[in-house]
Every structure is written in C-alpha cells, then in structure tokens.
Specification:
- The chain has 8 helices and 11 strands.
- By secondary structure, the protein is an alpha+beta fold.
- It folds into 2 domains: about 50-150, 2-Layer Sandwich (Phosphorylase Kinase, domain 1), CATH 3.30.200; about 155-320, Phosphatidylinositol 3-kinase Catalytic Subunit, Chain A, Domain 5 (Orthogonal Bundle).
- A 5-stranded mixed β-barrel has the order 2-3-4-6-5. The protein has a 4-stranded mixed β-sheet with strand order 1-9-8-7, with no helix packed on it. The chain has a two-stranded antiparallel ribbon with strand order 10-11.
Length: about 325
C-alpha cells in the first residue's frame, strides 16, 4: 500500500515537472523583443482621470495590510484590496507627481504601471510600521496616498535594470523622446535603480519592456541637492522660462541641471519634432483632469496646467526653427 502511494506521488511530481519544463521551453522558443515604446494612436483620446487601469481597476476597500516596503526612501506599504489585488501604497511628495506623470507618459506611448491617487481610506490590521508610521493612524486610516498595482503580468524583473547609456535603444527617437519627457516634467532623479525591466509573454511574443518606473521626483525644481524639489508648482513654474534657453543648429540649450544632465540633454530638434507628434496632441482638458485625479488643489491645477502648456509651446518653437 505504501509503495503504491509513493508511486502515485512520484508520478504526480514527474507530471508537474514535465509541465514546468514544457512551459519554460515554449517561452524560450518565443521570439525575444525589446520594447521601450509602442504607438499610442491618438493621445487626445486617452483617459487622464483613471489612466491605463481605467475606472474598473481602481483599488477597492477594504484594504488589508501585508507588510512595510523598506525599499527606496519614501514611506511605503503593501496591501491587498477587497478583490484580492495587490497594491503598493506610497506617501509624501512623490505620491501626486507619480500619478500624474504616468498618465502623460502613457499617452505618449511609454509603458507605465497602473496607479491611482486615493485621498483617504483605512487599512485593516496594520502593525509594526517604521517609516510609514507617520502616515497611517493607529486605526489604519490614511490620507493622500498613491496606490500602484502589483501584477504578475507583465512580470517585474527584480534586480534587473538598464542605463541611459547601455540599452537596446541607443540613438533611437524613442529613447530620445523619453529623455524629453524627463526634462519636460523636471524629473531630476533618472538613476539606474529607477529604470526597470518587465517580462511579458501575453501576446504571443517574449517581450522585455523597458521603462522608467519612478516619476516621484518630478514637477518641482531641478538642480542640486540643496535646490531640487518634488511637487512644487511655484518652483516648477519659476524655472519654466529657462526650460529651453536657445537652439544652435542641432544643439538645444536646456535649463535643466541635475543628475545625468549631459545624458538627458543630448537631444536634437529632430527628436523634439518626433515626440511632439504625440505630446503635442495632449489637450489642456486632459492635463487638468490628470492633475485633479492626482490630488492637486484647484490652485495647483491652474499653476501646473499653465506651466506645462508653456513648456510644450517652447518645444513647438524648437520644432518650427
């Protein structure tokens, strides 16, 4: 009897192993494609209120505490929602710019994760918090949080990063376009740790998706450690006059200063012309909707909408020269 049970267990284990190996072999046989950008179609049709996830993927209470995320510097925790979906919750100055920037970048054809701004809520069974303890009350209530969906498809490849100088897209319009969006949004933290790779086998091809996965250090002032800021429209608007200082032939003189300054600013008027095919179609209404959905006050919405439009117009002046 014991031998019969053991044989059945061994047979089941062998079947499972064969299925795993077969699945891996099928994945290896798929053509490998590196993707940074896909044609978005008409960006003016994109929903800046709900972003790539749409209204149907909004996080639904009740929220259950999983653990605290100690990566990076911002306070974050992991939770599940009422449908069992996993979310990473972030607070402080990175919450609002992250949500807005992902909408604009997505409309221009770049991959982003599903994000929402949740103005208030409550998380069940919270305990043992460290960095996030100032943002979650003893009863689990919180204010002004960014919820980022944690999904296995596409799969985030932990520990795998790329750099602005070493990647499969060097010299392409797509890479240069992403740099222009970094400058437009004053993202002063384009470090390699924020440049992520996702694996995607959903559409009959084995794809590696390259993306900037953290837009939190945006919509403030560029500069050095004593001057840069996040979600600071007064500072963002004040630097808009120097967003582009001039053009000499194929060289654009940018006002931006900060990390990877030389790498980000090596774009040409032809690169600007390319990204404006998409960026230039985004409307003021979409920008305002995206800002409101990111938790901006009416004053911040008006301030950012004006400054962003002025920066886009400066890009359009470069194109026309």
């Amino acid at each position: 009897m014991f031998r019969l049970q053991l044989s059945r267990l061994l047979y089941s284990a062998l079947c499972i192993l064969c299925l795993v190996l077969l699945s891996a072999a099928k994945t290896q046989d798929l053509p490998v494609e590196n993707v940074l950008w896909t044609d978005p179609g008409d960006p003016s049709t994109f929903d800046f209120t709900y972003g790539i996830g749409g209204p149907e993927q909004q996080p639904q209470p009740p929220f259950q505490f999983v653990d605290e995320d100690m990566s990076g510097t911002a306070p974050k925790i992991n939770v599940t929602d009422g449908r069992g979906l996993a979310w990473n919750v972030k607070w402080r100055h990175e919450a609002r710019p992250s949500v807005f920037c992902t909408r604009l970048v997505w409309a221009c054809g770049y991959f982003v994760e599903t994000e929402y701004f949740v103005p208030k809520g409550r998380i069940e069974n919270v305990h043992g918090l460290k960095r996030a303890s100032s943002f979650v009350s003893h009863d689990g209530s919180f204010l002004n949080a960014r919820f980022q969906l944690r999904s296995g498809s596409p799969k985030f490849l932990k520990g795998r990063h790329w750099s602005w100088s070493e990647n499969p897209f060097a010299g392409t319009r797509e890479l240069q376009g992403l740099k222009i969006l970094m400058l437009l949004l004053s993202n002063w933290d384009p470090k390699g740790a924020n440049l992520a790779v996702f694996e995607d086998d959903r559409n009959g091809a084995h794809r590696y998706i390259y993306t900037d996965d953290d837009w939190g250090a945006s919509l403030g002032k560029w500069g050095g450690i004593f001057t840069w800021s996040k979600w600071d429209c007064k500072g963002f608007a004040a630097q808009t006059a120097d967003f582009i200082k001039g053009v000499e032939g194929d060289r654009i003189h940018w006002g931006f200063s900060g990390k990877h300054e030389k790498t980000l600013t090596d774009v040409t008027p032809a690169d600007v012309k390319w990204i404006l095919q998409y960026l230039g179609k985004i409307t003021d209404t979409q920008i305002r909707q995206g800002l409101e959905a990111s938790g901006a006050t009416p004053e911040e919405t008006a301030c950012y909408a004006q400054a962003l439009r002025q920066r886009i117009e400066k890009l359009q002046e470069v194109r026309s020269q």
